[in-house]
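Pair request: fold both.
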Amino acid sequence: METEDLKPEKFNENDIEKKIFEDRWVRFAFGSQGFVNTKNLSLGIVEFDKDKTSLSHSHNVGESLYVLAGKGVVEVGGTIYHVKKGDFLYVPKNIEHSIITGNNSRIRIFFVFGGEINIDY
């Protein structure tokens, strides 16, 4: 569905196909890769299994994270943040960051990007 044709729409997380990456799975709800194709808003859910470290990466737009379940570490620009269920974290645009889980916990995160983005790594 193109942005210009958008109308209110309700759907469930389970309606969205999981995109499997080497270190995680993602369900893109809104955005260019989303269940609903939007241009100025991208969001979804990502889950990292136990003992995973994401690739260090950055985005050309800011990213907000909300931890839905589990715990882990998010390294942002060299600063370590220990996060758990209920925590929010903001990652400014163009700042390197990664997500790390330990051997006793996975982490599930709701993410929001402040603009159009395409994730293929």
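--- second member of the pair ---
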Amino acid sequence: MDLSSKLLSNAVDEISKLPGIGKSTALRLALHLVNKEEGDIDNLLKSIKELKRSVLFCDRCKSLSDSKICNICASPNRNPKILCVVEDIRDVMAIENTAQFKGLYHVLGGKISPVDGIGPNQLNIDSLIERVNKEEILEIIFALSATMEGDTTNYYIYKKIKKDGIKFSTIARGVSVGDNLEYTDEITLGRSIIKRIPFEQSST
């Protein structure tokens, strides 16, 4: 992309490195920033630097947090006996937006995908098993993407943890096969949480 300003071109190149942002969108964002007050730009840069420097992973659920224990895990209004297993914080945000789930989460940090070189040891599965052994968990809800990799991860965790006293369920397939939770509308996702089904029946 030939631009009249090398400085603008450099900014577009850097912005376009962000996921899901092409050159045209990067140019639109760069031009927007040019027209912003310098104080606004300073605040943006400061927040990004603070995010990179200070954000933590919750000791309990492995989601992003400002402290050792995130706000969701620390809330007295959540049911600690129900655990929803998700891929990443975007899925936590998507489910939270439905206002239909009042349990806790466990963020795996991805899903098992041999093609991409991602195995169980690279995910937060051991810490999930440790939580189940330490905490009084009555139900585990699998809320991974409705893909082959998601189903494989569900089954792996189920076989690793399966024991008496724990109910395993999965979100209803109102979420289309192959879809990511973050792109599912709130009503559909909320209904799939409410109408979750026993995990053992999900593969039949």
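Observation on the second member. The chain has two domains: 6-54, 70-202.
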